[in-house]
Amino acid sequence: MKIHRKKKLGVILFVAAGLSATVGLTLFALGQNMNMFYTPSQVAMGEVETGRRFRIGGMVKEGSFISESDSLKVRFETTDFVHAVPIEYEGILPDLFREGQGIVAEGSVDSRGVFSASKVLAKHDENYMSQEVKAALDAADALKSNNSLQSISER
Amino acid sequence: MIPELGQFSLILALCLSILLGTIPIVGAEKSNALWMSLARPLAAGVFVFLAVSLVLLAYAFVTDDFSVQIVAAQSNSLLPMRYKITALWGGHEGSFLLWTFMLAGWMLAVSIYSKSMPVQFVARVLGVLGVLCVCYILFMLATSNPFDRVTPLPPVDGSDLNTALQDFGFIVHPPTLYMGYVGFSVVFAFAIAALLSGRLDSAWARWSRPWANVAWAILTIGIALGSWWAYYELGWGGWWAWDPVENPPLITWLFGTALIHSLAVTEKRGVFKSWTVLLAILAFAGSLLGTFITRSGLLTSVHAFASDPTRGVFILGILLLTVGGALLLYAVRAPLMKSNLGFSLVSREIFLLINNVLLVVSAASIFLGTLFPMVYQALTDDLISIGPPYFNAIFVPLMIILVVFLGIGPMSRWKKTSMEYLIRQVSRVFLASLFLGLCLPLVILLEFSLAATICVSLASWILLTIGKDLKNKLANKPSLRSGLSSLSSSYVGMVLAHTGISVMLIGAGLTTYFSLERSILLGPGEQVELGSYAFIFNGHEEIRGPNYIGDRANISVLRNGSEIEALYPERRIYLASGTPSTEMAIDAGLLRDLFVTLGEEKEGGSWSMTVYVKPFVRWIWLGAIFMAMGGTIAAIDKRYRLLRRRKIEKSKEREVAADLAAT
Q: Across the interface, do B382 and A10 touch by the CB < 8 Å criterion?
């Protein structure tokens, strides 16, 4: 092999080694830092193991919001209109948090079935519904119509 | 009537850009001088009609013409004038018009500042930009016409600009970001023109460099403004969230950074040609990707515009057409380019190659993390999100390695540098920066911290290697002054930009590891301590603004028992939309920011609030300012201008000679 070919090969090998190492590490890191998303129905039916971090999305149930007067603890329920999951959070809620609005919360569920959130996100635009909340409501709709079909066929 | 004129003007701009996208390119192919000469007037025409369009749309906003759909959706008669004008880019349609106008602006700039380049080349560059213009205007007219009317009856008042956008940051961040983003289209057009002509030489690199530098500098400022705005407006005390819409500008910026370095090698040494072209294409693709992600509604984020799938498909079409076409052309033409790999394994070329590999790899992994949720959803139907830990885990180590090489690179020489020489140059600098990294945090913080040590070591490594390099450069000069004035402005630009990295590194590192924050409920007269500061809540009052009502808290900040600052965070309710919004109060300082956000009133008159102490956070944006200054100074390097003057003189002489010969 000529010298310049050797050099070229060296450069190519160097780049290839760097790239493949990074792709491997990247995929590993992706797998480690992936937050799955679940709907209130999935959580209520116990599809998520306790202690695992994930995201939940749905509407804040009307009349469920309780705020402690002497601390920053709040409690509310998020619902997809089939099942509701209680959420506990300590901190300041986003500006657009309101009952009847879509939210996404990040955290984990404990053995009592209560979701303790480390982060609560509310939608930022009147015309815009978060993809996750929308997915949760769609899934619930599908479930509802399935159930009613089943109940019809059972009859 | 006025909005229809605006639309008419937009259609005229489309017609002219269709001409611009075809005639000069064909002319360049056929060496038809007349056809090529049409490029400049056509580019000016496109600019004028887009400008008219933009002004007429702004007029609709200023005069509260709520019969125009986007005015009704994004403005309100109570809105202060500065937001009425800027509400233009508060939504998808208007902001895309601004984006297209920016492209036309760059196009005009190219047609003015390209007198030294061959006519054929200029015709191709403007032609390629014309094709982009066609795509963008067609997209607007087909899917998102900013001049659409509300039918049948216009609303009495508009539904107001999103409250989070009613802020100074909104006035400056989008135009700057767009200008930087779109600037990379120019470099892209240069690369395509060079591919079309088959002449990728160092002249091409020399012509592209100032444009790439300026676009990069503006993008740097644009991103920094966005980060600064998010910091003080969104109220979570962070300055970078790895949000899916923050990432594409960063990806573009990283490609752009690789590009300006690679262009230097191509210009000076004539190597890495095809790689440089590829980077130009990638940087441009990054900017289109940003558009796609914001406007397609595929990803959830603070920035996403209300979505419409046809838009996403259309932009994807543009993306495939332009980037795909460019890559195809590249695949056909690039193998024809020959570079002589005339450098050894330790040389400045290699260090710049390492710089490029690191930058491109980090850009690629951010790209992967940004798009992974989308791909995952398409494959499995499950929704996932990728959190900041992923991005930090990848980006931070890569940047640390990059900074280590950043110190050595400028000291190395082209072609061949001996390892002993480099080691001799940097060994003392290396020890000194380690020493500084160990001692400075110890003195200031009175405790050992690995993060602070790494951070300060790296920052001083950059500064000390720059100092050493300067010392070498000035060693043989008769006086300091003559030495300093002999430095080329590209070198000064590089020094400034690298200093900027060092400053930003200090800011980012120290803020991340030493920020304090606390959310708490305070009654009137109560206080909270944070670090060496005490925040006392003195009570609140009701306030009334032009288009909002709200509460303002009064908080005194004490340090060592004496009051140093009073802060007034607000919580507003905007009247038109009824949306609440918090306005934080910040006491900015070079060494630390104090920062309070107001939550809400609870029973008994106490308020929830979050207080922050953020050391060195301003340095992040200060660093960006240094970098942008560096980029700009490098772009105005004398040799680009000198060359231009010499060329013009030469061509004039030739013309005169030809005239003489003819007579």
A: no
Q: Flag whether residue A15 sits within 8 Å of chain B, measured between CB atoms.
A: yes
What count of CB pairs under 8 Å joins A to B?
104
**B468 in Cβ contact with B495 (< 8 Å):** no
- A36-154 topology per CATH: OB fold (Dihydrolipoamide Acetyltransferase, E2P) (2.40.50)
Quick check: B304 pLDDT over 60?
no
> Please, which residues 67-126 of chain A have a Cβ atom closer than 8 Å to chain B?
67, 69-72, 90-93, 95-96, 124-126
Task: Name residue A56's beta-bridge partners.
Answer: A38, A105
Chain A hits for B376, Cβ within 8 Å: 34
- Section B589-610 average pLDDT: 87
Closest CB to B581 among A22, A92, A95 = A95
In tens, the pLDDT along B616-648 reads: 999 999 999 999 999 999 998 766 665 555 555
Euclidean distance between CA atoms B571 and B581, whole angstroms: 6
- Banded model confidence at residue A152, pLDDT cuts 50, 70, 90: very low
Q: Which of A29, A69, A91 sits opposite B603 (nearest CB)?
A: A69
Give me the pLDDT at residue B657, please. 57
Of A32, A37, A135, the CB nearest to B385: A37
Bigger pLDDT: B334 vs B167: B167
B649: confidence class by pLDDT, cuts 50, 70, 90:
low
Residue B341 has pLDDT above 60, yes or no: yes
Contacts of B170 in chain A (CB under 8 A): none
- In chain A, what are the domain boundaries? 1-34, 36-154
For the cut 70, the answer to whether the pLDDT of residue A155 exceeds it is: no
Query: What is the spatial distance between Cα A109 and Cα A49, in angstroms, rounded to a whole number?
Result: 8
pLDDT by residue (tens digit) across B389-402?
Answer: 899 988 999 999 99
Give residue B226's pLDDT.
92
Q: Find the residue in B nearest to A128 (Cα).
A: B306
φ, ψ of residue A70 to 5 degrees: the values are: -110, 10
In this complex, is the C-beta atom of A32 within 8 Å of any C-beta atom belonging to chain B?
yes
